[in-house]
Here is the input.
Amino acid sequence: MNDSPTAARRRIPPPHRDDVIIAAAGVLGGLLLWSLGVSNTGSRHFFPDWVALVPLLVIGPVVLLRRSAPAVTLPVGMAATAADQFTVGNLATIVLFTDLMYAAVVYGKPSMARRLPISTGLVTVITTIASVALVGPAQGLLIGVLTGIVCFGPALTGATLRNHREAAIAARLRAEQTALLAEMDRSQAVVAERARMARELHDMVANHLSAIAIHSTAALSIDSPATSREALGVIRENSVQGLAEMRRLIGLLRDAGAGQEAVATPSLDGLDALLEQARVNGGASGLEFVLDDARQPGGGPLPAPVELAAYRIVQESLTNALKHAAPGRVRVRVARADGLLTVDVESPYGEQPGPRAPGSGAGLVGMRERTELLGGEFTAGRQGLVWQVRAVLPAEEKAVTA
Here is the structure.
């Protein structure tokens, strides 16, 4: 059972090595003083001289518990010290009591550590006033000073040390918390950067690879030299453009790591070229691509993150149209009004004849992330016989950098 004597002994921690040394030194020192006849109150003879050893032998073993049970050792030490005053006295008993007072403040509960310096200070003041009134100023002040040295001095020293220790612990905890927060910020920054690069890589390469997949499938499935030659031309063009985009991304990574100027990023000025490329890639699938740029001239430049996000949303929407749209017209509309940039891409919804490229859904996720990072709104879904992608982005400089 847990209440057995063995279990109880296990709950009491063994005394610290320093406590053993203090207790042994105090008791041996007190025995030496007594054997030499050195006493504190030699004029008092209430009891035989050997009785002075009783408080010493009581307070000495108590010192072994100065760390583990200060709430117990201090009252016992006070009683032993009070009893010592009725004997010839032993200086070692007083010294051991001062150590118990110090340990009670350092190792005791916070409430004890707060009360003892105040209470011992009041005791010192009251003792000094009473002694001056009873025995005169000179001896009274001496008694007050001795009382302060025995009671208030150790308590004040312990409180000072404890405050320094608590301040050091608090500083260490703050440093650990700061390091933890810094590591969390670093991890979040790494995750955010990886997500950004994943979007860039997908948006740049997926369009070209989708075209390559569609036309290579067509070249393999249609036994026509003209069709194969046309498909190979589209494949080569997309391969070259995809390789150029990859080189641009690699250059951006290297230059950004070296602190150099990054390569120019795509903007809405390149939408004409983007749709022209889509026309080449989607002509065999019966798709027609139309750009409706409703932006008013003189509206001022767009923030770079917004411009890049709008371009990538159009690019990914065209890629999805090449992979999934039915034959018909794909309309891209860009408008700017009331501090907002609106991007709409509509494509025919239905089964696409001929070869198709597989999709993973990562494109829609990337478009939504781009929009939400800038504080915009993104929707994508079927509207009757049309698949519509719509993104509303803030067109002011306060836009969040993606």
About this structure: Residues 9-178 form one domain. The chain has two domains: 9-178, 268-402.
